[in-house]
Amino acid sequence: MEINKITEKIIGAAIEVHRTLGPGLLESAYEQCLEYELTERGLKVERQIPVPVIYKDLYIEYGYRLDLLVEDQVIVEIKSIDELHPVHEAQILTYLKFSEKKIGLLINFNVKLLKEGLRRYIL
Questions:
Q1: CA distance 17 to 95
Q2: In total, how many domains does the chain have?
Q3: Which of 1, 43, 98, 119 could form an S-S bond across to 106 if both were Cys, CB 3.0 to 4.6 Å?
Q4: Contacts of 73 (CB under 8 A, 6+ apart)
Q5: In the chain, what is the straight-line distance between the N-terminal and C-terminal CA atoms, in Å?
């Protein structure tokens, strides 16, 4: 499936979750509901995928965990915070780098309108 179609489906699913639940829940609740909604839309979704960190000769198997990986192509990092900060952007860019993926979505569900909490990153 083409990457723009995948991200379009992810954003649509996130809007549905946000419309139904609203802001104020824990990230884990949004993660599970978004996984459900994406699966219902026919997408392959994996949760809490370990991403290793390699530093010289040191291999850290569980350096990071991706919230969601959709269609083996798109990383979805979920937040439920007052506002996104540069550290959150750095986090998803690090995930993209270490996982060798090209596209990431950072979604903050703790906003009035989801489009205010949505960021797309391309590595």
A1: 24
A2: 1
A3: 119
A4: 3, 6, 101, 102, 103
A5: 19
pLDDT band at 100 (very low <50, low <70, confident <90, very high): very high
- Which structural domain, as residue segments, surrounds residue 69? 3-122
What whole-number percentage of the chain has pLDDT above 70? 100
**Span 73-99, pLDDT tens digits:** 999 999 999 999 999 999 999 999 999
Buried/exposed code over 41-55 (b: 16+ C-beta within 10 A; e: otherwise): eebebeeeeebeeee
What pLDDT does residue 54 have? 85
As a three-state string, the secondary structure of 64-122 is EEEEEEECCCEEEEEECCCCCCHHHHHHHHHHHHHHCCCEEEEEECCCCCHHHHEEEEE
| 84 φ/ψ angles, rounded to the nearest 5 degrees | -80, 145
**C-alpha span between 86 and 7 (Å, rounded):** 22
Domain containing 97 — which CATH number?
3.40.1350
pTM of the prediction?
0.93
